[in-house]
Here is the input.
Amino acid sequence: MIIHRIQLPLNDSDYYKLSIGDKVLLSGTVYTARDAAHKKLIALVEEGSLLPIDLSNNAIFYCGPSPTPSGKVCGAIGPTTSSRMDIYTIPLLELGLKVMIGKGERSIEVYRAIQEDKAVYLSCLGGVSALLSQSIVSCETFLWPELGAEAIHRLIVKDLPAYVAIV
Amino acid sequence: MNIRHINEQVIYDAVYEAIKHITYHPDPAVEPLLRDALDNECDELRQDVLCSLINNIELSPDSSTPLCQDTGTLVVFAKIGNRCVIDGKPLETIINYALRMASSDLYLRASIVRDPLFNRTNTSDNSPSIVHTRIVEGSKIILKIAQKGGGAENMSNLRMMLPTCNRQDIIDFILETVVEAGAKACPPLVLGIGIGGNYEQCALLAKEALLSPIGTRSSNSDYAQLEQDILMQVNNTGVGAQGMGGNLTALDVHILHAPCHIASLPVAVNIQCHAHRHIELEI
Here is the structure.
């Protein structure tokens, strides 16, 4: 098993090193977004509004963190099922989204679009929050706090483990 | 007839402590089964996955971080003895109060919305729980409690099968459900299977079956054998831990069955992830 240490945003040289089944340890900034945040983002795309978040070359983690206990940098962190985001993914890829982190399989259409747009889908282990939380350096609510766990959070991660699923 | 009075505080304390325990501890059989699988696994990637699942079980209580960020819907099966009376609020109110306090104290993620379709605002405290109550002979209260995550629940399935179907037809339906679930349900899984009853009873049987401790078998020898055959065939699907292949797709299979109509053979498959968080309390 090949292990790559990847600094986000993902650059071309690192992108071309990735193969399906490789392990990556991600460092840098990722934005969380689940169903409700995707629905709001796509509504803005459809009405032609400027998105309040620059997705170009950025990474989205399909994740709804639990609240941060006092004295800690974050609560429990882990991926949700990516396929629920499939219907929203292609327009976001067109806006330059480069890295998606989640769990489980994607639709064939999304699979092809990820490859065509030279993006990457990383599979992260589900149900291992205590382990993944160790890789979080900071967690702040970035957008739409009224959505609670479904808000967009900005995470700084250090060596967050995942596996290359689509490249 | 002697009536036993149970103070609401006793129930509140027991439920609160139970939620706290299962937030950080899966079924005690999960970790040894993962370790056995790791000992027999040669593939480096699958070894890495299994090690991560084991490390998480060790880290969770030490770091007071939930096993999974999805602490789910709180599901309770309550058997209430016909010779006991709760002094205080109704059982469901007490359970929801304990759930709200535990969610706040333990920083559990708020995962429940008020309305499924028109007003998906979060209740912010994980209430309401889903409580199934039965009155039974006796003077005790027995509560089976689980945190049920959304990812595995979404991949569950119920089919009204033909009454002429045989046991392999049922196994094929279950295999189809597990393969379709793939990595989305966070395998290795625990499967709760309901066979018989009617539409809603079948789903309840599947859910309650999930709450049997891993390693226990049906008391009916035919169903016990069916549980073992399903487990073996599920583990031959090649889905594997977290969908990475290998022969650990499920940790266990539990069946509950009930009489049914001559026209029917309902079968429900309720899927639980490897973070199998459940406990039984006797009050």
Notes: The CA atoms of residues 110 and 126 of chain B lie 5 Å apart. Chain B touches chain A through 41 residues (CB under 8 Å). The radius of gyration of chain B is 19 Å. Chain B has two domains: 4-24+67-148, 150-276.
